[in-house]
Design goal:
The protein is mostly beta strands. It folds into two domains: about 10-70, no CATH class; about 85-305, Beta Barrel (Porin). The chain contains two helices and 15 strands. The protein has helices at about 25-30, 50-70; strands at about 10-15, 20-25, 90-100, 100-115, 120-130, 135-140, 145-155, 160-170, 190-200, 205-215, 220-230, 240-250, 255-270, 275-285, 295-305.
């Protein structure tokens, strides 16, 4: 989750005619300023250069606080790899109501930033399926491992545009020997291009990816678009309510066809280490048999920074 990283502290103090600067390394790097550019300086009074540096740092910290306080979309990928999605845990419960079954999915995602541009992680899902007229099944689904790498970044005053590539490998760990199956029974590789334009007032996110599937199963084109809008004034530490409207779609490369959902959602950021979010996905188009169509999908989850 990409909210303002913890530890953003900038103190401008005069004590015994000494100028002291204290800046969080994490936020400084997030704003594009090298940590070694800000070092303790001693003087009777601040020089013109010091004043300029102070103003510059203050502006950058304010901009980054505003942007990252907006939070990431709920279903669409985000190109920001800092804050809660930089090193922490995301988990949520997803209830899926189908014409012929009820499904509950509870994944645990653990991302970790190796560098500010390179992130790796894994997703471990647990699934409960309750088909009509059949026995319930619960167990481990297909585990995923992923890697993200930022390929473009352009920051401006109160705005940023970023793009990354995400590679995801799905391992068939879900049991398929009994019905209903808990996994796909096939290795899957997905390559996704993710972009986002984020300002102090709104965020626009989009991703498009292609999923390659083994064992003769159909491939899939996946796309998502999201618009995010913060409702509260920007402050630090962040206390923010964000609303999102997303379109989540996929095109299966066989007779199954096109599936599209609209997803309104809301997100509450309760500081720099925690947020809670919820959303509902409603079908606009479904290229599946009538008995397999989805009525709706409801998601409630949290994201926590733990390291």
């Amino acid at each position: 989750m990409e909210t303002t990283p913890s530890g953003v502290v900038l103190l401008w103090m005069y004590q015994s005619r000494t100028l002291i600067w204290k800046t969080s390394t994490e936020q400084t790097l997030a704003c594009g300023i090298k940590s070694n550019q800000i070092s303790p300086q001693k003087s009777c009074w601040p020089s013109l250069h010091s004043l300029r540096c102070f103003v510059l740092v203050t502006v950058f910290v304010s901009i980054c606080t505003y942007m990252y306080g907006q939070g990431p979309p709920i279903f669409t990928e985000t190109p920001i790899m800092l804050g809660l999605e930089g090193g922490g845990v995301r988990t949520f419960g997803k209830f899926i109501s189908k014409e012929n079954a009820k499904v509950y999915v509870h994944p645990f995602a653990i991302p970790y930033n190796i560098t500010p541009k390179w992130q790796v992680g894994s997703v471990v899902p647990f699934i409960n399926k309750a088909p009509e007229g059949a026995e319930n099944r619960f167990g481990l689904g297909d585990v995923k491992v992923f890697m993200k790498y930022q390929i473009h970044k352009k920051d401006g005053r109160g705005k940023t545009f970023r793009t990354l590539i995400k590679l995801t490998e799905s391992i068939p760990t879900g049991n398929t020997s009994n019905a209903p199956p808990l996994g796909s029974g096939a290795l899957q590789t997905q390559v996704t291009l993710v972009s986002g334009y984020i300002t102090t007032k709104y965020g626009i996110y989009a991703d498009i990816g292609y999923n390659f599937t083994s064992n003769g199963l159909p491939d899939m084109l996946i796309y998502n678009i999201a618009f995010g809008y913060p409702l509260l004034p920007q402050i630090y530490p962040p206390k923010q309510i964000n609303v999102f409207l997303e379109l989540n779609g996929n095109l299966v490369t066989d007779a199954v066809g096109h599936n599209l959902f609209i997803a309104p959602g809301i997100q509450y950021i309760a500081g720099s280490r925690f947020l809670v979010e919820t959303a509902v996905q409603l079908p606009l188009a479904q290229g599946v048999p009538e008995s397999e169509k989805t009525k709706f999908m409801y998601t409630l989850g949290i994201r926590i920074l733990i390291f």
